[in-house]
Recover the amino acids of this structure.
């Protein structure tokens, strides 16, 4: 018999880490865009943590995030024009600077000193434009999650963005437990040893780490190809690792790789292997949609654009399988409102993530369960 | 950076008092309904009856989600009782106050920030400076005073902000040279993106405004708070005639043309009611006195022409104020 929602759930959703539609913290840095997406040519419209933004660059090259609604009649500024250091509303030509101050009101000789649209704190780091849509006085630029492999010269690679039709927490669940690879990605990176191998979970502050080693196994197709890129003609058993590190609210960097079996990789010598980092950072758009920014970085064959392209395409195919599963899962969740989530032992990493996010939401005075469908943020 | 102007009175208890400079008392309040006070906010304190019994004080510091709000009050030698009453407060006393009110919000995203405090005006800028430091913004804090002894929080601010602070002290022979400061801003590459927030004596603020305009810096980047509108002339009673409606209305010193028209049942159009939006603009057909515009909607040249005014804030004063004859304004409404 399915566990059903309490009769009280309609009026007061229980504050539970297993919420199906998980709320998102606002006092946090989220990736809004890849650096190259934000330009001084035309503004980019993107909704971040429920807040519609117009993203653009001024003549200093600095990325700016303004609320995507003119002070006057709320016309979307993202449909306007960038004129030097100002963004012009497409409707009546009011212009705003990087601080959101109105600088031009075409039909009068003065400017109403109250005319302003919110400008949100922005930090550009690791090839991404990060924004903070919560209380700006809490926005500490040093608190941007670590994704240094993105622009460290010791690493090479590239990535893409998935617009995922699901609550952001479903993606975090997906990445914190990789036993799904055996079933969802059977043709590329899946293998049965994933479910058989034991894993360790640790947590500290706003981070959670899940570590899994699989020793003396056959390399699945994706990893066999990578081994042969570095060690032409390689065959034989490998030791495989997945070290998943979450940093709140939505960044998961996964240290992945394989090395020739028995050459000491588990003890720290990875010289006989290939190492990649799956860089994921998930930004809630609405309760039921997310921006999923990912990249695959590697620390071997750094000069090969061919390998960069092949890896990006390979991961694109793998993540396409996740995207489809996540969309189907969100549909099933919405189609079965009476049913709750159960947990398995493999969810330990994901449940620690939920617990950390719940703590952040509590500090903001907000519940972990998002409002009912359709209400959005 | 929404503007909060809703007034909701509540009780607050005095939990700490201390002196922070000669004649300046620091008062920490614990409000009954705590609410975090963002940089730039003030609270209103009721010290007597009616509108004249209310004083506004900047929140110097908001701690623990607004459970501790720090104010600082200078004992005014010409005090009509407000600052003296505040200085008499003791730990355990109760006060009637509003929650945090915001009409001096700190923007995000300016290229550079300059905060200029004259005397007790520093109270409005302490929290802003801390916020800018935490954000990693490019900012300077300019502190001006008659002597170090009367400059509140001077040592704390120098300790917190280091070489971002510029101190100008009259009796040390280092007074603030306003035009040098503004000329310096105008010379930087970030001039167009620099916001200046100021709080201090009206003479200092007027000097900064003149210099700001003189260096062609964007008017919108000069930020200040006016606690109540101030005109060029004291408010006095005058008459408004509306020939089209065949009406004549008396405007008392403590009310506006707009309020008086509404009270008389004349249909009008208005929005901001503080001289900013220009929606209540009316044509001046004739005037026997001088118009004291008090708005920021009309430009200086439009005010000189004086063929239009804002019903919500503009007033008239008699040409010969000793005669006892009130000014008469004839208006055409839109």
């Amino acid at each position: 018999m399915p566990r059903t929602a309490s009769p009280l759930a309609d009026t007061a959703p229980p504050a539970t880490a297993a919420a199906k539609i998980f709320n998102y913290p606002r006092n946090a840095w989220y990736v809004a865009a890849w650096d190259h997406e934000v330009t001084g040519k035309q503004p980019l419209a993107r909704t971040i943590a429920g807040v519609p933004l117009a993203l653009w660059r001024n003549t200093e090259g600095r990325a700016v995030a303004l609320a995507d609604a003119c002070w006057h009649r709320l016309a979307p500024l993202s449909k306007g024009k960038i004129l030097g250091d100002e963004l012009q509303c497409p409707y009546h030509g009011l212009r705003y600077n990087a601080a959101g101050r109105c600088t031009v009101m075409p039909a009068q000789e003065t400017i109403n000193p109250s005319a302003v649209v919110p400008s949100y704190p922005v930090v550009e780091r690791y090839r991404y434009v990060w924004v903070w849509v919560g209380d700006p006085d809490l926005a500490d630029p040093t608190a941007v999650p670590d994704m240094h492999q993105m622009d460290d010269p010791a690493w090479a690679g590239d990535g893409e963005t998935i617009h995922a039709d699901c609550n952001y927490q479903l993606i975090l669940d997906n990445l914190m437990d990789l036993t799904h690879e055996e079933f969802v990605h059977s043709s590329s990176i899946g293998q049965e040893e994933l479910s058989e191998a034991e894993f360790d979970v640790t947590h500290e502050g706003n981070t959670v780490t899940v570590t899994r080693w699989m020793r003396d196994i056959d390399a699945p197709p994706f990893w066999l190809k990578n081994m042969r890129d570095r060690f032409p003609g390689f065959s034989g058993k490998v030791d495989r690792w997945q070290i998943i590190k979450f940093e709140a609210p939505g960044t998961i960097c996964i240290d992945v790789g394989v090395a020739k079996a028995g050459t000491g990789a588990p003890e720290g010598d990875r010289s006989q292997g290939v190492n990649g980092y799956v860089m994921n950072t998930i930004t809630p758009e609405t309760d039921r949609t997310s921006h999923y920014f990912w990249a695959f970085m590697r620390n071997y064959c750094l000069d090969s654009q061919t390998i960069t392209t092949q890896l990006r395409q390979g991961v694109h195919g793998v993540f396409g399988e996740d995207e489809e599963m996540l969309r189907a899962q969100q549909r099933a969740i919405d189609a079965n409102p009476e049913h709750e989530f159960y947990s398995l032992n493999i969810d330990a990493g994901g449940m620690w993530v939920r617990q950390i996010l719940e703590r952040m939401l509590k500090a903001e005075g907000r519940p972990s369960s998002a409002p009912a469908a359709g209400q959005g943020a | 950076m929404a503007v909060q102007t809703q007034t909701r009175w509540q009780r607050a208890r005095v939990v700490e008092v201390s002196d922070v400079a000669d004649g300046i008392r620091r008062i920490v309040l614990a409000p009954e309904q705590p609410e975090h006070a963002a940089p730039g906010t003030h609270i209103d304190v009721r010290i007597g009856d009616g509108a004249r019994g209310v004083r506004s004080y900047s929140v110097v510091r908001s701690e623990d989600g607004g459970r501790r709000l720090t104010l600082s009050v200078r004992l005014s030698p010409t005090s009509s009782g407000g600052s003296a009453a505040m200085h008499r407060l003791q730990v355990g006393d109760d006060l009637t106050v509003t929650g945090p009110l915001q009409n001096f919000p700190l923007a995000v995203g300016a290229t550079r920030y300059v905060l200029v405090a004259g005397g007790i005006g520093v109270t409005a800028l302490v929290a802003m400076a801390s916020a800018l430091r935490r954000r990693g913004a490019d900012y300077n804090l300019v502190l001006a005073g008659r002597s170090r002894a009367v400059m509140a929080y001077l040592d704390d601010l120098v300790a917190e902000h280091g070489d971002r602070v510029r101190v100008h002290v009259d009796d040390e022979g280092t007074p603030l040279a306003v035009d040098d400061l503004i000329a310096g801003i105008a010379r930087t590459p970030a001039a167009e993106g620099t916001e200046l927030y100021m709080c201090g004596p009206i003479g200092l603020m007027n000097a900064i405004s003149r210099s700001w305009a003189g260096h062609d810096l964007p008017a919108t980047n000069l930020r200040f708070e006016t606690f109540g509108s101030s005109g060029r002339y004291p408010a006095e009673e005058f008459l408004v005639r509306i020939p089209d409606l065949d009406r004549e209305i008396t405007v008392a010193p403590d009310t506006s043309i707009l309020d008086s028209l509404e009270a008389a049942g004349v249909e009008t159009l208005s929005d901001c009611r503080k001289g900013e939006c220009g929606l209540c603009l009316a044509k001046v057909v004739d005037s026997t006195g001088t118009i004291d515009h008090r708005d920021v909607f009309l430009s200086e040249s439009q005010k000189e022409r004086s063929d239009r005014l804002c019903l919500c804030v503009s007033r008239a004063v008699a040409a010969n104020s000793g005669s006892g004859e009130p000014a008469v304004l004839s208006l055409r409404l839109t």
Notes: Chain A has two domains: 29-133, 147-363. The mean pLDDT of chain A is 92. The domain at 147-363 of chain A is CATH 3.90.380.10 (Naphthalene 1,2-dioxygenase Alpha Subunit; Chain A, domain 1). The radius of gyration of chain A is 23 Å.
